[in-house]
Amino acid sequence: MNYPKILTIQDISCVGQCSLTVALPILSACGIETCILPSAVLSTHTAGFKGFTFRDLASDMPAIFSHWKSENIEFDGIYTGYLGSKEQVDYIVDFALPLLKKGAKLIVDPAFADNGKLYPIFNDEYVEKMKDLVRCADYLLPNLTEACFLTGIEYKTKYDKEYILSVMKALCDMGAKAVVLTGVSFENGFTGVAVYENGNYSYYKHELLPNSCHGTGDIYASAFSGALFKGYSAINSAKIAADYTVKCIKCTAGDKSHWYGAKFEPCLIELIKAINA
User: Nearest CA to 194 among 165, 228, 227, 223?
Assistant: First the structure.
């Protein structure tokens, strides 16, 4: 699959370097034809900006899917990010998944929680609805908070490999074929990503940087998706995405004026080199 056609479904924050404004350039840089379906349009993202505008586009989705079906448009894969409502999850399951070609993959980034808490817009009902998409996922990309909300397992900040394995196995028991768990740290100064696929566990450790940036989860998920759709294995895709995300954070460090996102664009050449290595 040298030139796959991928659909990514998530919001557009017009300013703020997250969601579709991250996914589209990163997937394109990986050499992938990238089609988009905005779940919502915001003037900025919601972290640190005040008075932002928000328009839910859920009501537009059925007509878009209907048009694509009438044109016999199909996709080699779907990658979902931030979805603003339970209705959008239903639309993806009912209308988007039937547009996948045989053998195509669904990558799901749940994008509803972090640091032990749900994002303000979401509630327990949304978590229950997200489980419908988890059951369909070929690759599920949660952080530990999201994984715990989905499984009902207690969220911990200190844990061992057995705990992480129990969380990942529980997600696979729900229906996810493979799990890529981000932000897994077993020692001070380091974090990493754990991959569980076909009963096999892998872990990739990388440095934990003192500074963090908004949108790095979207950068990671987009780079992972790009590598996977270009034919890399899950663990190698996880490595490529982790290394790229670290480069983006380092590129942004020290620039106090750039508090709203990560400078991923100057580092795209490094991702392109990694994808084509």
Answer: 165
**Tell me, what CATH number does 83's domain have?**
3.40.1190.20
Q: How many structural domains comprise the chain?
A: 1
Closest CA to 26 of 180, 193, 230: 230
User: How far apart are the C-alpha atoms of 244 and 224, rounded to whole Å?
Assistant: 10
- Domain of 108 in residue numbering reads as 5-275
Give strand pairing partners of 53: none
- Which strand ranges, in their side-by-side order, compose the sheet holding 5-15? 54-56, 33-44, 5-15, 75-80, 100-108, 139-140, 178-181, 190-197, 200-207
The pLDDT tens digits of the residues spanning 36-73 come to 999 999 999 988 899 999 999 999 999 999 999 999 99
Q: Model confidence over 100-159: pLDDT tens digits?
A: 999 999 999 999 999 999 988 899 999 999 999 999 999 999 999 999 999 999 999 999
Q: Enter the DSSP assignment of 142.
A: -
**H helix intervals, the chain:** 20-29, 61-70, 86-91, 124-134, 144-151, 161-174, 216-229, 234-252, 268-275
Residues 6+ apart with CB under 8 A from 138: 105, 106, 107, 176, 177, 178
